[in-house]
Amino acid sequence: MDRTIDHVAFGGLELYELRAAANEVGLTPTYGGEHSTGTTHMAVVPFPDGSYLELIAPTLGTDAEEAGFWPSHLATGAGPTAWCIEVPDITASAKAAIDAGIPIDGPHAAARERPDGRLVEWDMCFEGSDQRLPFTLRDRTPRGYRVPKAAQNTSVRGLQTAVIATRDRQATADTFARRHHYPSPVEITGPFEQFAVLPGTPVALCEPGDGVLAERIDEVGEGPCAFLVGVTDLDRARQVLSLGAETQYSDRRMAWFDHELFDDRLGVVELP
């Protein structure tokens, strides 16, 4: 299994609010169009390494709870919603999940029409009964249709980490080991309590206790609660991005984007 993130979904009630927040912190979203369900639309923030942040919300006139993708996350403005890995064979990937004892939903054909009329098509498959595991994707049309070219930046590289909020860190680590052969968790100093990484993978785990993250799990279930973008140097990143106070991520530095929609949800971390 590829150990890089293709893209992550960050959901809310109003796409214009998500796009405005992204612009305010130095990210540049491009409107990507409406999904074929007609109930959601999205904008793309591409990164130089080819990964991207998907901002997603219900279309005008759609009740968020009726949205075709992640309705509970959109209805509650949960922010981090899901994360994706691209696979070479979506059917083989689905079979591997079944063989690992993971329930699947898919593969499904999906599409969206860009504002220029270009149709973007792909197949996708969801795994598990919640959002802890990544969903998988295989393009039908060229990937360049789906992902606009990113402006080159001297410090920003791309998506590095999906932080998964879970009631049972070891049980979730065991699920990743069974499905994706990820290694055992290693505790580090991080942005949340009871924080651990799965070394060499894009996954970090946090067990929330009785705080805000516990309330989040009660509301939308276990799954990603934060996403981290890799930068080569935090000080240089601050020249182009609006970032909050510096904190520790193991022996590296990190910071959250300085906006209420992104605080404790979307941040940057220095690459090792």
UniProtKB/TrEMBL annotation:
SUPFAM superfamilies: Glyoxalase/Bleomycin resistance protein/Dihydroxybiphenyl dioxygenase. Pfam families: Glyoxalase_3. Residues 5-177 form the Glyoxalase-like domain. This is Glyoxalase-like domain-containing protein. It comes from Haloferax mucosum ATCC BAA-1512.
